[in-house]
From TrEMBL:
<dbReference type="InterPro" id="IPR013785">
    <property type="entry name" value="Aldolase_TIM"/>
</dbReference>
<dbReference type="InterPro" id="IPR008567">
    <property type="entry name" value="BKACE"/>
</dbReference>
<keyword id="KW-0479">Metal-binding</keyword>
<protein>
    <submittedName>
        <fullName>3-keto-5-aminohexanoate cleavage protein</fullName>
    </submittedName>
</protein>
<dbReference type="Pfam" id="PF05853">
    <property type="entry name" value="BKACE"/>
</dbReference>
<dbReference type="GO" id="GO:0043720">
    <property type="term" value="F:3-keto-5-aminohexanoate cleavage activity"/>
</dbReference>
<keyword id="KW-0862">Zinc</keyword>
<keyword id="KW-0808">Transferase</keyword>
<dbReference type="GO" id="GO:0046872">
    <property type="term" value="F:metal ion binding"/>
</dbReference>
Length: 149
């Protein structure tokens, strides 16, 4: 895994690309492990948003990594569901899809959050509070973070 870096901010790699599973070398300063990886599937010019592609990415992660995935536009719910089933985390919101479901524009980001909370509960997964999510990502806790949905 080699990550061409586009920049870091507060210890967060803002953009990188998988190029090889076994080339990761934290001693060369490319990345600190364990790390959190966010996979963005279904964007133009990127990897197709399929369960098989997500499985490949997850199976390619260094041990101890955490991860989340998004599916752009029409693929958001499919990839979110796969992420929950595979033990990963999800990102949702109107930045990734303006449609809540086929033919229906989303009114708020809260719609997406509520749907994922319900889906997670149905699948037996706990949902992180904002501060728990920040801890998973290695970020400082926020005093003004919202309470558990």
């Amino acid at each position: 895994l080699r990550l061409p870096l586009r920049g870091t901010e507060g210890g967060i790699l803002t953009e990188g690309n998988f190029t090889h599973k076994y080339g990761l070398d934290p001693e060369k300063g490319l990345i600190d492990l364990p790390a959190h990886f966010q996979f963005v599937l279904g964007i133009q010019g990127g990897m197709r948003a399929t369960p098989r592609n997500l499985m490949f990415l997850v199976e390619s992660l260094p041990p101890g990594s955490t991860w989340s995935a998004i599916g752009a536009s029409k693929d958001q719910l499919t990839i979110n569901t796969m992420s929950i089933l595979l033990g990963g985390h999800v990102r949702v919101g109107m930045e990734d899809s303006v449609y809540f479901r086929k033919g229906e524009l989303a009114k708020t980001n809260a719609q997406f959050v509520e749907r994922i909370v319900q889906l997670s509960n149905m699948l037996g997964r706990d949902v992180a509070t904002p501060n728990e999510a920040r801890e998973i990502l290695g970020l400082k806790k926020s005093k003004g973070a919202a309470k558990h949905p």
